[in-house]
What does this fold into?
Amino acid sequence: MIHLSDVYQSYATGTRALQGINLRIEDGEFVFLVGPSGSGKSTIIKLIIAELLPTAGRVTVNGYNTTKMRASEVPYLRRTIGVVFQDFRLIEKKTVYENVAFAMRIVGASPQEIRNRVAYVLDLVGLAHKARRKPTELSGGEQQRVSIARALVNNPSLIIADEPTGNLDPDRSLEIMMLLEHINSLGTTVLVVTHEKELVNQFNQRVVAIDGGLIVSDRTGGYYQYEQYENRYKHPGESTPEPTEQPEQPEQPEQSDEQQA
Amino acid sequence: MNNRHNFAYFFREGVQGIFTHGFMSFASVSVITTCLVLTGTVVLLMLTLTGTIDELGSVGDIRAYVDETLSDENAAALETTLRAIDNVSGVDFIDRARGLNELKEQLGENSTLLDGLENDNPLRNCYRVWVTDIGDYQDTVRAVENTRGIAQVYASVDAVSELQRLRNILGVASLTFVIMLGMVSIFLISNTIKLATFDRREEIGIMKIIGATDGFVRAPFFIESLILSATAAVIAFVLQWIIGDAIVESALSSLTFMKVASFRDYLLPYLGAFVGTALIIGVLGSLLSIRKFLRV
It folds into this structure.
């Protein structure tokens, strides 16, 4: 579970990245976090994985209060989260198998556990037959699936995908998103950061829109909600939105047919 | 973290890192080896020079002439008193007859000039006294002068104090050189290791994001540095042995007045110093260099 309560974030440069964010994501949810560049999406990700501490407010992730925990506890919080990056961040000198196994070595898993679990997740992402290849020998979509396998291998309760389809063509993007949705159906909370409107609109999931460091929309069922906000509040020439009222409280996300099943 | 499962991984990664970053590994070993050999050679030269000065100091032995009023037996008995003086390393009694013979030897062909003096020897009984530490030469001369039964003392106090001064200057110069070389070594090594870790900053970043502890990230680097440092120490030791034998001994031994310090006399101290210094510099350099990349 992720809970951001009255979170403000300012940088040394004077930039106010977040201006009082309240966001709650329950276990098992699938959430898209959308918004334009510089809206504060990446800052939220950094706060969740404790790469940043909030200037004010409280961030609680999987039972860890990041503002109160010791630095030595950060790795243990991160082990409850699987992170998927836009640029994959695979270690090029290691094979696909080693890239995934590496994440299990970090938690001190035995060689037997590593063999069993890595084989399972590579099969899940459809790359069992490419286990001995190096990342550079794979396509972008395949590299992203390795990255997802690595994020999954320690069985985290939360997966954060930061622009996971940013470097992929539309077909591969849809594949990756469907894979994430499948992972979510197995019980893992998934938070996808993206600005790909068409892709988001193909899924009937909760969409949290952020702009100018504020949550401007939190609804289930597509990116169009954010467009409505844009039409209403954003006028030509304005770079920062100034909503006249606090955004509506997040509604409980509607479960997809697959999840309900 | 289960270290039992991870140790083999750390070791494998450490060894792999050496070969993956071949040039940087070679550079690290070369820098550590060069600095150790340079420092070791300077120390060996310093030992040679100070040893030679000490040897030269023994030329300036003390000659103590015995009071003529003492009988030959009483004069010979003074040896015990002189030996009891601090810093005296040796005493040789030269009675009048031996003194005359030595004088004849020095005169060589002209020794006939001394013919007939055997029955009316004008020389005094005398002692040659050697000191242990020329640093205390003046005090020792004073103590011999104050010995009852000694009438007169000849000692090359000025020459010895000049040698002593030279030895002190050499000692300070050598120490300064060793310290400067040590500082240069640390600078070069930390830069070399920084380059190696900079090359792996992305890998370290990935490790940290997926939940690696600082210890887990450091371990392969630590093992890699340990292996590189130990290798450098062994290579430096072998090179120092060759240099010590071939260059120092053969070149300087032709200068017969020099007391050449042999590397073989200091094998264990050198091995200990090389391994200890290399490990400290290598491992500390590695751990300090990686620190800033751990802040993720």
